[in-house]
Amino acid sequence: MFILKRQDVEISSIQHPKRDQPIPILTYQGQTFRLISVFNASQEEDAKAFWRDLTDNQGKACVLLEEPERYSVWGKIRLEQMGVEAEAASGSSAVSPTYVRASLLMLQAVYIDVEDLLGGRQAGLFQKEIGEMFKQWRFPQADSPDAVKYLLTIDPLNAAHIPAWQEHHLNTLLQELHRLGKAYFGNTTFVDRSIDALQDLSTSDRNQFQMWLNGSPLGKLWR
User: Fold this and answer.
1) Is 93's pLDDT higher than 70?
2) Where are the chain's structural domains?
3) Residue 199 phi/psi, 5° resolution?
């Protein structure tokens, strides 16, 4: 459909009718769209390619939002009485808990690297930036400093509670995690160590997650 600017749209959130979590909603000329994926400013071509694939090849009604620091892709939905009806272009339900656990393992690996190699002060700044990202993109069960600390320190494989995140949450997390890792270390050597953390998963779970990751718009960042 369209490439839009921030001043063209209104972004708000509604409560999911079946789960205790907010859903980011973009409104443009009376139409409503739900967040699918986020890219940083340097990934303009990747964002446009992902958007065109959804619109041209898959026939989805989507918009691409261009902002100074990021691009985001949104899929059209209909809203009735503050409930979500029909299907978004992607990510209409929570992803497999395996994917969330794998993403948390990668997040924790980068966090540990920052703490071990750069020191406690930098680790504190990293934790704060991750928390701001969670808050900005309305991640469920990640809206307080204590919740962020919990996600950075739990054992994802044995934790009693894992957040019910959707695909766009994982896309955003892994996108921002790569950006932060590169900013803190000045290179991408953290990628191999983060992927190594997936060895804690069972072979089948690891293969399943890596197939999803490699098939996502972020796949080439984490190779």
Assistant:
1) no
2) 2-85, 97-216
3) -60, -20
Specify whether the CB–CB gap between 177 and 110 falls below 8 A: yes
- Report, as an integer, the average pLDDT of 196-206: 94
Q: What is the mean pLDDT of the chain?
A: 84
Question: What are the C-alpha distances in Å from 198 to residues 2, 51, 107?
Answer: 38, 29, 11
- Average pLDDT score over residue span 72-79: 82
Contacts of 47 (CB under 8 A, 6+ apart): 39, 64, 71, 72, 73, 217
Does position 119 have pLDDT exceeding 70, yes or no? Answer: yes
Alpha helices, DSSP H only, in the chain?
A: 44-52, 97-118, 120-136, 145-153, 167-185, 190-196, 203-215
Which contiguous run of DSSP H or E holds residue 141?
none
Which amino acid is present at 18? K
Query: Long-range contacts for 131-134 (Cβ within 8 Å, ≥24 apart)?
Result: 133/172, 133/173, 133/176
| More confident call, 84 vs 160 | 160
Q: What is the CATH number of domain 2-85?
A: 3.30.200
Strand pairing class (2-5; 62-66): parallel
Q: Say what the pLDDT of residue 92 is.
A: 45
Residues shown for the chain:
223
Task: Please give the single-letter amino acid code of residue 168.
Answer: H
- At residue 90 the predicted structure's pLDDT band, cuts being 50, 70 and 90, is very low
Q: Which pLDDT belongs to residue 85?
A: 41
E strand or H helix that includes residue 154:
none
